[in-house]
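Task: encode each sequence below as structure tokens.

Item 1
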Amino acid sequence: MRSLFVTGTDTGAGKTLASATLLHAARARGLRAIGMKPVASGCESMPGGWRNADALALQSASEPRPVYEDLNPFALPEPLAPELASRAAGIEVTAEPILAAFARLSTHADMVVVEGVGGWAAPLSATLDQRDLVRAMRLPVVLVVGLRLGCLNHARLTADAIRADGCELAGWIACGVDPLMACREENLALLDARLPAPRLGYLPPMADPQPVELAHRILLP
């Protein structure tokens, strides 16, 4: 079993739900699975420090449970793009702390699910892109497609960009982020026909989705 990097067609595509569901799917197969959110903006001050809701969701879905500082090395207070949020915090996002935390997590896991930020091309700093982390970690990529109007274009462009950047697209997960989307099944069929990787699952629209209950819908690549 290999670790994975999870990216999305855009912000709000369903990356955290898909990542947590992947963790539960791996755990259901008897694997030690740990989540990681290297960079998270929009954090809240808590007794233990700055904490991000998405990172906490991954921590809750992990077994064994990682320490927060390894799961989320860069916790940025402002709800902005990482480059802007880190500038506001007076720090710079760099690869070294992320790679060191990933190495520590990997010693305790059969599989680390690393969730990116925003879409594939969202920069982490002036000198660091998500593709740089994926290459350094040598991870295959799972693309989360938020099912809504425009997803065909976003999904195809993102898949092309991942491969053009020299990274492996291992599969994609459809996430029903718009419960009112017209022709959902027809759009899924178009994506199945055009994306150059297998669909690993479909997470339907739900008022309160629970990753542990959705794990059976996911096929691990």
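Item 2
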Amino acid sequence: MNAPALPVSRKTFDEVMVPNYAPNEIVPVRGEGSRMWDQNGREYLDFACGIAVTGLGHCHPKLVAALTEQANKLWHLSNVMTNEPALRLAKRLTELSFASKVFFANSGSEANEAAFKLARKHASSRHGSAKHEIISFFNAFHGRTLFAVSVGGQEKYTQGFEPLPGGITHLPFNDVAALTKAVSSRTCAVVIEPVQGEGGVMPATPEFLKAARELCTRHDCLLILDEVQTGNGRCGTYFAYEQYGVTPDILTTAKGLGGGIPVAAMLTTDAVATSLAFGTHGSTYGGNPLATAVALAAVNEIALPETMANVKARGEQMREGILAIARRYGVFDGVRGMGLLLGAPMSASWKGRAKDVVNAGLRHGVWCLVAGADVVRLVPSLVIGEADVEEGLRRLDAACAELAGASRAANA
């Protein structure tokens, strides 16, 4: 006989959880498609997708079927043995990308950790230890491990964790001249997000990515593209790099890869992969059969032409809706991003108030995100319907109307 479930609430979080998060007061208990419901039965439209993770919405039937089928077969082996779902997923990812080799992990941080280690190992084995510099960019975000936050270009994530790993140089994003000056014989890798997600939903310019590719080739260093957030259909092609005409040496991806199951991947070429020889890196859970079975179902659904067509159509619909809200209330200063990874920067008079928009949105039944204090981020399901986008925008409009009204009243 099963024990009864213990009653829990948002208050329970403060009692039992480490206080490194500050979750909203609502506690969701169920989701279906692009909607979810909290403990009180209230419904919300999901424009956040667990930070761009549930790319096929909540409880997608094909993912539920894959999970259920594999759960009745085999959950875990470790990498002492390989397994069929992991091999099938790796093969599918190589079919969809430039890569010929795959390493599986559990999170974007872990995938990036593997990429950074591989870059240094590759350079060391070919040129010696002096070629170890990693070039990254201000406002970048590459994860929360010590190495990943050090490579990321946001000081707020490294304060108090010093001393940090060395050999990392940060440059202004999209600055071709600064990058050209910095890359040298000491550089082992240049690491770029095609769209800086946590850094404000800021796309790389084509000129910047092409310059990075050319410089890496010239100086025999590796171009790493962090597609943890931009990959898996989020930007309108399976990987965002496809839209730039630039091919990386290493690519990392996670978030939408498993549709909500923790799984990540580092993709690379045969020539680079040889540097990560037996025993040089590993993961106990990485590539476990349960996660990779669900991820394969997600990848196959995302890669469908109709899914990519929906990303582009709904992305345009959301852009138009956000611009209309901006015109009505003056809260936003336009919209930027790619596909269904969109950012609405706050206007000059609303700087620092992105979180206020998110909170007001929840009051009106739509869940959005921030990308820093000055940008509202919208990352709905890749298969969200036109009617749900329209309704979500209506609720966001109501939230902005509430804020604008309160602002006028306060200044009257």
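Check on item 2: The first helix runs from residue 10 to 16. The longest strand covers residues 187-192.
End of task.
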